[in-house]
């Protein structure tokens, strides 16, 4: 059986290059990996995206090219904010919907890395039980200690990852989720116990909501991990993704 393609959906302020260590490792195990650049980050600061629609379109185009042109099933890998555009991009692309259209490939799952997998109509502040903050149209990245405090501050990896962060369009970040993806496909969720950006209680509430609403969700926990295990815990993250694809590892 052919292996599915992983499509990584990066989070706010991040770029596809931040996932190159995980990408290279997955490729060594025979997987194809794609990572579209989200316009909310990629176009900043020259352009401000007004919502998450451009991000959704970028992800959906990548998915459809892989399903229909390459002929491969897809597993989405959203990180953090990436869960919002990832969820919006998969409407009608689950196995049942695709089969009804005579298609043989589909999105077979979401393998979320401490990500906002939310129901339609909910945004990140709502998921955290907080009021929506008043923010500028564009906002630079928070301190790197919010993202990867478990990568040594004096290391080349820390410096390189910090250099690759970019400004973010804030209206996209706080846009409401456009589709309840977890009702259509299984979710695999990697929790990070020491995440300072999406705290463990928030991660757990996301998982609990999926379960309460009848979604299928499998979890793994990375004890001691920051928000960015794709930098600090690469092989464990890759193991999670391989298991999400059905491997016994």
Automatic annotation (TrEMBL):
It comes from the Eukaryota. This is AB hydrolase-1 domain-containing protein. InterPro entries: AB_hydrolase_1, AB_hydrolase_fold, Sec-Metab_Biosynth_Hydrolase. It comes from Cladophialophora chaetospira. It holds the Pfam family Abhydrolase_6. The lineage of its organism: Eukaryota, Fungi, Dikarya, Ascomycota, Pezizomycotina. Residues 7-238 form the AB hydrolase-1 domain.
């Amino acid at each position: 059986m052919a292996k599915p393609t992983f499509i990584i959906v990066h989070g706010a302020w991040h770029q596809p290059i931040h996932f190159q260590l995980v990408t290279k490792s997955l490729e060594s195990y025979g997987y194809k990996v794609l990572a579209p650049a989200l316009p909310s980050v990629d176009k900043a600061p020259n352009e401000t995206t007004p919502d998450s629609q451009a991000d959704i379109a970028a992800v959906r185009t990548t998915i459809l090219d892989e399903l229909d042109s390459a002929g491969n099933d897809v597993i989405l890998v959203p990180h953090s904010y990436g869960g919002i555009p990832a969820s919006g991009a998969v409407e009608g692309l689950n196995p049942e919907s695709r089969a009804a259209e005579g298609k043989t490939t589909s999105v077979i799952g979401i393998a979320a890395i401490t990500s906002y997998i939310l129901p339609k109509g909910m945004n990140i502040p709502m998921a955290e039980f907080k009021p929506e903050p008043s923010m500028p149209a564009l906002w630079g990245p928070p301190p790197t200690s919010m993202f990867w405090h478990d990568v040594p501050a004096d290391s080349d990896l820390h410096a390189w990852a910090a250099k690759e962060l970019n400004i973010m369009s804030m209206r996209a970040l706080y846009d409401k989720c456009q589709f309840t993806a977890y009702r259509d496909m299984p979710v695999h969720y990697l929790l990070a116990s020491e995440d300072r950006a999406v705290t463990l209680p928030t991660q757990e509430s996301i998982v609990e909501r999926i379960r309460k609403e009848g979604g299928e969700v499998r979890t793994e926990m990375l004890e001691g991990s920051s928000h960015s295990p794709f930098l600090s815990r690469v092989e464990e993250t890759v193991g999670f993704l391989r298991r999400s694809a059905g491997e016994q590892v």
